[in-house]
Amino acid sequence: MALLITKRCINCDMCEPECPNQAISMGDEIYQIDADRCTECVGHYDTPTCQQVCPIDNTIIIDPQHIEAREALWEKFVVMHHPV
Fold first, then answer.
1. In the chain, pLDDT over 90 holds for what percent of residues?
2. Over the range 33-63, which residues count as b (16 or more CB within 10 Å of their CB) and which as e?
3. What residue stretches are annotated with the 4Fe-4S ferredoxin-type domain (predicted)?
4. If both were cysteines, with which of 2, 28, 51, 81 could 38 make a disulfide (CB 3.0 to 4.6 Å apart)?
5. In Å, how far are 8, 35, 62, 71 from 56, measured between CA atoms?
6. Residue 72 confidence (pLDDT) above 90
7. What is the per-residue pLDDT for 75?
């Protein structure tokens, strides 16, 4: 699964520097998460750091359009951080 930043985002700039995959960037109005780069911090941390640092509850949620098993997230992490 990838995560999704909802319209509740206040653009506080807390999540973007915390993302170990550089999956978060500023969109047209609010921050957005690149589903191809988001591993929900699998391979880095036990829980997604963006959710932990976000000051607004329920702003960063599981993206229903990008459901992935933990194994798929792990594979994505390996490809991004340990290319052959």
1. 94
2. bebebbbbbbbeeeebbbbeebeeeebbeeb
3. 1-29
4. 2
5. 7, 21, 15, 29
6. yes
7. 95
CA distance 46 to 7: 26
Please tell me the distance from the alpha carbon of residue 75 to that of residue 23, in angstroms, as a whole number: 16
User: Measured between alpha carbons, how far is residue 9 from residues 52, 67, 82, 83 in Å?
Assistant: 14, 22, 32, 33
68, 2 contact by CB (below 8 A): yes
Which DSSP helix (H) or strand (E) runs through 4? strand 3-5
Q: Which long-range contacts (CB under 8 A, 24 or more apart) does 26-35 make?
A: 30/5, 31/5, 32/5, 33/2, 33/3, 33/4, 33/5, 33/60, 33/63, 35/2, 35/63, 35/65, 35/66
Q: Are 11 and 59 in contact (CB under 8 A)?
A: no
